[in-house]
Amino acid sequence: MITQVDFVSINVADQERAKRFYTEVLGFELLSDQPMGGPDDADGPRWIEVCPPGAFTRVVLFADADAAGAFGPCVFNTDDILATARDIEAAGGTVVEQPTEAPWGGWWGRFEDSEGNEFGMNQRSLASS
């Protein structure tokens, strides 16, 4: 029986730039940064895993320049979407859709990563900000 999602892959053109964005702008933890072809392949693609602090599901920053720049494979949940949008912008990121109350309940917004991928962010109910 499947119990959880282990990781999602996000296609990026520049793994180093993406790693900086996810760790410095979004505040994700760096869990792994290894050559995919083993220690003898230091110049090739890397296996880079990051995750939001305390999260189980990991995000793999997968080197695929041709597929980068799409709507991302997941939506990120936040406990304070208004503060998260402000934090992303203050760290130099781009919020492409400011958070608004969603017709289905909760709140919704979108941001763009360093590789042109867009992601939804949501909050089930609005916290006091």
UniProtKB/TrEMBL annotation:
Matching entries from InterPro entries are given as: Glyas_Bleomycin-R_OHBP_Dase, Glyas_Fos-R_dOase_dom, VOC_core
One Pfam entry for this protein is Glyoxalase
Which residue ranges does the record assign to the VOC domain?
Answer: 4-124
Instruction: Note the PROSITE patterns from the entry.
Output: VOC
Supply the name of the protein. VOC family protein
Q: Which organism is it from?
A: Solicola gregarius
